[in-house]
Design a protein that fits this description.
Layout: H1 2-11, E1 26-30, H2 38-47, E2 52-56, H3 68-80, E3 94-99, H4 103-110, H5 112-133, E4 136-141, E5 144-149, H6 152-168
């Protein structure tokens, strides 16, 4: 059925009627369309009085495939005379902040040199577990890390692993 429908649409020739179109017309065609060459889109727009031809990037033939935003922007501007400001792409993420328990007291107990060694070990443990669980280090602040995960479960598993590994070196 799909093959017959495609054959019917490709065999239908309305080119003799194109000069009679009096409505504002926008012809959009993707530059590297794999089904219909862009030259045919240009030719179509030349046969329609006062048609606007816009060549889009991409290779998809269907309007709902590929870069749909570019397609919609062109239609919107053609119909309204302007383009709306688009919302930026959004990311849903899990953010976690780590902090060593009572770090000021521990520094006083063990001294600056030993504390720097513990802090270096801490940072190594956190970064190893972040890599293991797919976390992204956003920023470090003193003895804390600000990290981002795509999945909440990964953030939780990573936090538990960090707690376990830090207990081995005497940190909470």
């Amino acid at each position: 059925m799909a093959r017959q429908l495609l054959a019917m649409t490709t065999e239908t020739d309305v080119s003799a009627l194109l000069g009679d179109i009096r409505a504002p017309t926008l012809v959009l065609h993707r530059r590297d369309d794999t089904l219909v060459p862009v030259e045919l889109g240009r030719d179509l727009s030349e046969k329609v009085p006062q048609a606007t031809f816009t060549e889009l990037s991409g290779r998809d033939h269907l309007s709902f495939a590929g870069d749909v935003d570019e397609y919609i922007d062109e239609v919107e501007e053609f119909l309204t005379g302007e383009r709306r400001e688009r919302e930026p792409d959004r990311v849903l993420a899990t953010i976690r902040f780590t902090d060593i328990v009572e770090s000021t007291r521990r520094t006083a107990e063990v001294g600056d040199r030993r504390w720097r060694e513990l802090l270096a070990s801490h940072d190594e443990v956190v970064r190893r577990e972040l890599a293991r669980y797919g976390g992204e280090e956003v920023k470090t602040v003193g003895d804390g890390f600000l990290v981002k995960f795509e999945l909440p479960a990964s953030a939780i598993r990573c936090a538990l692993a960090i707690q376990t590994r830090l207990a081995d070196i005497g940190l909470k």
